[in-house]
């Protein structure tokens, strides 16, 4: 017996409807906001993620699925979507067309993490990228899109926003952070002592209890924003107001990479404990330049589909059931079954979902099975019916029966 690799999961036929529902809802909402889908490869050159995700991040230092291919290239399974979309935007000349370019994707992504609820080594994301628009109205629209999706999925979430400024104001802030943390260095975890040297902003990200306590007293970046970044943040709040979206300002949300700029946001659910962030994003005006393009403003978010499903299940958010077949054709004997088989094919050709027996069941057992499938109608063909060229159609909801000639079966069900 060969088992599934650790940290991966099968989506079984009984569960795939939930996935389709989330994906369909995401596509519908994306279309409402004028986004088009972009599809990029599952693997990329490792270099893309070193630069586009950041070589000091946990993702890049600890979690990537990286290997040499037979041509001795370093290849990595995508650990996230944004860098891939940015690469495609540059490489395909989308930067030369009408701006902004608004895109979404639904992808598998891969990170070698300790598997836990809602966090797998192969996981799935719905992501949005808007390239080319620098105003806070674009940030607000991206947030509104996420908000619409989460609401449609029946989730009760809170929006937290922050601004992490630009490289200019962040330099001042980093200095203030280092001054604050210097006397506490001995109390910080090993990772944080490295962060202190390399990227002080990420000190605020630490999940260790001891570090978190110290973080509470740290200076807040909003107090260090330059006039342009402050104006952008004020405009974001104004546009969120215009969109009717409530928010809380949370100065502890950070993205510790230089190419992240200004807006950062998270949608948080109280319903799954510590893993509460269901969707996170922000602005990264430095990313496209970082991976070799011209300076281009960019804003987006990603939502983990496993995480969304986890919250939906925890809160009992309604998920529409998959529909059963329109009609189940039950045949009494071999001759009748063959007629049922042929009729099922005729109905499908006419766009009507139809099923028939493959197990040699009795008519009674076929009825039971049809009921289990959720068939709307059961059409029974016995010896007499076969001779007369008709079938006995029963509506399962109320057991009302009608006799329907084979010749008009497609027409009959098309109207139902
Ligand atoms: Zn600034
Ligand atoms: Zn720490």
In short:
The protein is an alpha+beta fold and 416 residues long. The chain has 2 domains: 16-166 and 226-315, BirA Bifunctional Protein, domain 2 (2-Layer Sandwich); 327-415, Anticodon-binding domain (Rossmann fold), CATH 3.40.50.800.
Q: How would you characterize this protein structure?
A:
This protein is of the alpha+beta class and 416 residues long. It has 2 domains: 16-166 and 226-315, Bira Bifunctional Protein, Domain 2 (BirA Bifunctional Protein, domain 2, 2-Layer Sandwich); 327-415, Rossmann fold. It contains 15 helices and 16 strands. The protein has helices at residues 16-32, 46-54, 58-63, 82-91, 136-152, 167-181, 190-198, 209-215, 227-242, 287-290, 305-315, 334-349, 363-373, 383-388, 409-415, and strands spanning 36-37, 43-45, 66-68, 74-77, 101-110, 122-131, 158-163, 248-249, 261-268, 277-283, 298-304, 327-331, 354-356, 377-381, 390-395, 401-405. The strands form 3 sheets. It has an 8-stranded mixed β-sheet with strand order 1-5-6-11-10-9-7-8, sandwiched between helices. A hairpin with an 8-residue loop joins strand 9 (261-268) and strand 10. Helix 2 crosses helix 4 and helix 5 runs parallel beside helix 9. The mean pLDDT is 93. One zinc ion is lined by residues 188-189, 191-192, 206, 208, 211.
């Amino acid at each position: 017996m060969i088992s599934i690799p650790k940290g991966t999961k099968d989506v079984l036929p009984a569960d795939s409807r939930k996935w389709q529902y989330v994906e369909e809802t995401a596509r519908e909402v994306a279309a409402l906001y004028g986004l088009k889908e972009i599809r990029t490869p599952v693997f990329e050159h490792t270099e893309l993620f070193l630069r586009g995700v950041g070589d000091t991040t946990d993702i890049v230092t600890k979690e990537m699925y990286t290997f040499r291919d037979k041509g001795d290239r370093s290849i990595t399974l995508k650990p996230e979507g944004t860098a891939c979309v940015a690469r495609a935007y540059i490489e395909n000349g989308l930067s030369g067309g009408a701006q902004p370019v608004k895109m979404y994707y639904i992808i598998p992504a891969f990170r070698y993490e300790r598997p836990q609820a809602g966090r797998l080594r192969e996981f799935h994301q719905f992501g949005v990228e808007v390239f080319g628009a620098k105003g806070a109205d674009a940030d607000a629209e991206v947030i509104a899109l996420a908000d619409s999706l989460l609401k449609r999925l029946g989730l009760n979430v809170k929006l937290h926003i922050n601004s992490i400024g630009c490289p200019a104001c962040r330099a001042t802030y980093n200095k203030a952070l280092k001054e604050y943390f210097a006397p506490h260095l001995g109390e910080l975890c090993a990772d944080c002592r490295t962060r202190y040297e390399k990227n002080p902003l990420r000190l605020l990200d630490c999940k260790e209890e001891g570090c978190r306590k110290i973080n509470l007293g740290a200076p807040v970046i909003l107090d260090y924003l330059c006039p342009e970044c402050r104006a952008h943040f004020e405009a974001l709040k104004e546009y969120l107001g215009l969109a009717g979206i409530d928010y809380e300002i949370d100065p502890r949300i950070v993205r510790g990479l230089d190419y992240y700029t200004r807006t950062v946001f998270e949608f948080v659910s109280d319903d799954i404990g510590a893993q509460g962030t269901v969707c996170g994003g922000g602005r990264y005006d430095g990313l496209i330049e970082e991976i070799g393009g011209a300076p281009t403003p960019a804003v987006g978010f990603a939502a983990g589909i496993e995480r969304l499903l986890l919250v939906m299940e925890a809160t009992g958010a309604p998920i529409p059931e998959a529909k059963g077949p329109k009609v189940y054709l039950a045949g009494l004997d071999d001759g009748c079954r063959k007629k049922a088989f042929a009729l099922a094919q005729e109905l499908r050709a006419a766009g009507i979902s139809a099923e028939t027996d493959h197990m040699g069941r009795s008519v009674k057992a076929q009825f039971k099975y049809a009921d289990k499938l959720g068939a709307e109608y059961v059409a029974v063909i016995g010896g007499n019916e076969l001779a007369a060229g008709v079938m006995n159609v029963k509506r399962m909801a109320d057991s009302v029966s009608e006799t329907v000639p084979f010749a008009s079966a497609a027409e009959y069900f098309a109207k139902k």
